[in-house]
Amino acid sequence: MPRGFLPWGLSNTCPQDGGMRASVACSGQVSDNLKHYLPVANDRFRQSIRKPTPTTVTSASAATGGRLDMSKASSATIRCTKCRAPQTISIWESVTANRRPDLKQMVLDGSIFRQDCERCGARLTVTHPILYNDPDEGAACWLCDGGVTPELEDAMDSFGMVLPKTYRLRLVYTLDELSEKVRIWDSGLNDWFVHMLKMSLADQAGADSSDIAFLRATPTRGGLYSFSLQLSDGRTVTMSDVPNVDRTCRQWNNLETQFDWLYVSDDNFAKLLRQYGHLLS
């Protein structure tokens, strides 16, 4: 299965996400600014559906033609949700973590999506599609607030097809999910393994795994790890002396050549386990 295709049967359904937001005129769109940095044109991608071309790229640097810093911003028109005043703001459409640690921190604390109204000073959360790319970790995550539009899907396909086959490609639908991905990758972990821990805790706590957030992981002794997870009510739970973390994460990482842009969920985890569980021991 060539890069650029979602594995059959895996769900990328967008969960419902309520709350007040300022409306972004370009939400769900991929601007010309970002399209310029997508290495493969959409017409080439559509042709590859009929006749796939093997990927020969061996590094993230080569995959982007040496243009590793894809951090790009564009202008958008929003209307304040409080005073309704229109204003033009800059929004970041893509962030390259190893080149712009300042933007990476803004993703982690959520400030990259916050704006203050020029008229009344109200704090607005302006959500929009954003590509988070971390070449050092070999991972990319696309925040698809509002769902995956056809244009956004084309952009993901084009970008994903020219990356190394081992690159981890993820979809998320909320700001919290995106920042959690960054924390997981910064800890050197595989997010499928972390999700397995969340499912285990959810079963014990009578909760939903989607309501549990990864906070941090700490190596302890003899290859064991301690994990800090947060429940939806704000309580922090520690899972101590978790074994086989490094080995299991490597095994999941080795499966990445079979995956494309995926949303990590209970259903998708179960499907992958049924298909590839014999490779995990």
Could you characterize what this model shows?
The protein has 281 residues and is an alpha+beta fold. The chain contains nine helices and ten strands. The protein has helices spanning 32-35, 42-50, 60-63, 101-109, 150-161, 175-186, 191-205, 245-254, 266-276, and strands at 72-79, 86-96, 114-116, 123-125, 130-134, 139-143, 168-172, 213-219, 225-230, 236-242. The strands form three sheets. A five-stranded mixed sheet has the order 1-2-5-6-7, with helices on one face. It has a three-stranded antiparallel sheet with strand order 8-9-10. The chain has a two-stranded antiparallel sheet with strand order 3-4. The longest helix has 15 residues, at 191-205. It starts with 31 loop residues before the first helix and ends in a 5-residue tail after the last helix. The model is unreliable at 1-67 (pLDDT under 50).
Short description:
By secondary structure, the chain is α+β, with helices and mostly antiparallel strands.
List keywords for this structure.
alpha+beta, 10 strands, 3-stranded antiparallel beta sheet, 31% helix, single chain, 9 helices, 281 residues, 5-stranded mixed beta sheet
- Roughly what percent helix? 25-40%
Shape: globular
Tally of strands = 10
Number of helices: 9
Radius of gyration, in angstroms, nearest whole number = 19 Å
Spans of at least 5 consecutive residues whose pLDDT stays below 50 are 1-67
Structural class: alpha+beta
